[in-house]
Give the backbone structure.
Amino acid sequence: MGSEIIELDRQGLENVIVGETSICCVDQGQLLYRGYPIAELAEKCVFGEVAYLLLYGELPNAAQLKWFRDQLSEFHGLRKEVVDTLRMIPPGVPMMSVLRTCISMASHFDPVSGQTVEALRRRATWLLAVASDIVAARYRLLNGKDPIMPKPGAAHAHQMLYMFHGTEPDDLSTRILDLTLVLYGEHDFNASTFTNRVVASTASDMTSCTVSAIGALKGPLHGGANEEAIALILRFRNAQEADAWVRDALAKKEKVMGFGHRVYKHGDHRAVILEREMRKLAELKGRQDLVAIYDAIKNPMVTKEHPIYPNVDYPCGMVYYLLGLPPDLYTPLFACSRIAGWCAHYIEQIQHNRIYRPLSRYTGPTLRHVTPIDQRA
């Protein structure tokens, strides 16, 4: 296009293509990770396989998956300096702020050297481990407990639950947490991924780009919907209260958290997958009362004249609550998964890099000249 200027009449770069990627495809009809439908990945793969796929481009065979898990296991365990930093952060600081600060702190002790593609993949694996360790250690410290050492060889979701609670998790809890990691792993050029790629385009390092993405995800217009969704569900004592509230909210055209998506107008593929498993977990935990409230909010939303469907954060808020995790952990758990996608985009960006430098339309005053200070009104 040369120097041609494309005039935009939309805000937020809506419907504007800003780059190319072979990592993820998001549209109305499908969500693909490197060509694989999310439903098949959710059914047939664990998060370790999906993280490997995002970082290496292909699904691993059994030997490759073991090698990747061994790497991840090797990287678990926080340095004393990072734990000391965690102890110094005031208790009221949001967990996303803690994650942002402590990943930055941990980067000073990055065990991986170099900028080759293989080194970057290893650094991404280290970031996956250190992020979940930070969240688990912070959670335990806030509850008056010391962080615990990771369990050698445990799968990623198993490891996370073990480091949160200090006990062996049940199989269903492990599987459903793993499923949320699969579903949150990647989602095209969303705000945090685009932030990551913009910073990567300056030739900054992977950890700085990850921290910048965490900063973007911390914003309530991007992350936090799973926290808001469970807060909404817990407001009501029963399904009747929830039904009355949501119908009133619809009449007033108020936003209902956990519903609607910038891309998916006909339903979020991930929400459908996760909701089925959420119902099994609720039955295991004996919390059908919460499912009744969940449905009482959902049903009027999806049966009205112009339906608004749940996004993945609506069932995910319930899942994390049923796993005994406090809401302040929910967006950090999102980040602990999305690091795989962010790092894959970082690698892709720097391999075909050109620094992002868009134009803006100036709307300020026309040309004017400086009046000496003693002549200004």
Notes: Strands lie at 24-26, 31-33, 36-37. The chain has two domains: 24-219+334-351, 225-322. The CA atoms of residues 50 and 182 lie 6 Å apart.
